[in-house]
Amino acid sequence: MDDIMNAEQTFPRANRLLRCAGSYMNGLKIIHIAGTNGKETVSTFLSSILQHTEPQRQKVLVGRYITSFLLNDREAISINNESISLAEYSEIENHLIELDKSLNLQCNAIELLTSMAFVYFAKKSCQWCIIETGLGGKWNPSNLIPPQNKVCCAITNVGISDEKFLCDALSLITYKCLEQDVRTIPFAVLDGSNDELVRNAISRECSNVGCKLHITDPSLDDCSVRTDSWGTLETPQLPYNEEDQIFNLRVAIGVLDFLKKEGKICISKDQLSKGLISVDWPRSLHQLDYCYETNSGKKIALLLDNANNAKAAQNLASHLRTKYGDTPLTFVVAITMGKKLPPLLDPLIRTQDHVIVTRFGSVLGMPWIQSLEPTHLFTFIKDRYTKNVDMQPDLHSVWTFLEASRLQTMVPVIVCGSLYLCKELLYQHNCHLRV
């Protein structure tokens, strides 16, 4: 078996940057969230509940680093659900950029942002840090975390089997990429709703390296969560009203159950319930007069909402129905590969609506994230929802098509389905304005 690829090998530039910046990793207790679907939900559950641990002689600070931010990089770094301030962000960023230049490291944007998160959490003396970075194998930013700082890893639904990937590709992703996580931590929690091939691959790897693995209950018979620390938890009213959320909740509770048994947290069943009740689910709905051509000043009214999970899609649909009723709407949609389509599209698309399917480009620093093929999305929408569907190869061609087809109306065009589509659009918008 290959030697473990540690931070020195996989992120030599960022590792050196952090080392020269100071001993910022010392003392940080880190929970890593891996997987493709449900990471944000699991990390939101954990962030909320860990803030309610006892005794509370002082405020419990829970740092959180995510890759699913939309408007700006500051959204990626937060403590107790509050994003890093612009002043603190700029101070840390400028310091690391100057250090990077002096050392001639040439760190990329992801390496700098990840390093900034660790520096910020250390400066604020966070008791817990939740690092949500997904699947990236040896190039995953989570590999910057020294083994001694990783307390455990939560592996959500990998979500590959639904997309007709070859079995050997699935094995490669689950075995080769996730081995970087389980080989350096004592405990991992795996979503039991994963494909059998995924469960077997991760179980085998954990067994090989001595990592204790807990696989959560895949049953949908009820919404209960069975624990060693608090008995059976009844959760009849989940914050997200979709079946996947019970799976995500069981993963989060599995992590907390381990921490409680290890004496790393002290939390009662009542406080656990309070933590669940106080979960703050982020909303999107960003209105934008999108500048889609350089120098021309041409703009189009858009409503951006990544709507990349069932609840978010339901929230968006509720907003659209309230505001526009039965008025036909125009959607621009791209979806991340591995996502289940019905939960995202069922609440939104109606017979009278017009849908333009497209794709987003490569995601900087995260080559494992890819857009679902537009041809697949086109066929699915046309067969299931509406015949008013068109396909465009990229975002640039979408606006040309909209202008030529005169689909622009007084009602904003809704852009949704993927965070990365929205981020690419915002990036283009800002670039056009700067020229």
UniProtKB/TrEMBL annotation:
Query: Has keyword Cell inner membrane?
Result: no
Q: Does the keyword Amino-acid biosynthesis apply?
A: no
Residues in a coiled coil are: none
Classification via SUPFAM superfamilies: MurD-like peptide ligases, catalytic domain, MurD-like peptide ligases, peptide-binding domain
UniProtKB keywords? ATP-binding, Ligase, Magnesium, Metal-binding, Nucleotide-binding
Q: PANTHER family, per this entry?
A: DIHYDROFOLATE SYNTHETASE-RELATED, FOLYLPOLYGLUTAMATE SYNTHASE-RELATED
Instruction: Give the UniProt family note.
Output: Belongs to the folylpolyglutamate synthase family.
NCBIfam families, per this entry? Answer: folC
Name-wise, this protein is Folylpolyglutamate synthase
* Organism from which the protein derives: Saccharomyces uvarum (Yeast)
At the highest ranks, the source species' classification is: Eukaryota, Fungi, Dikarya, Ascomycota, Saccharomycotina
Gene name tied to this protein: SUVZ11G0870
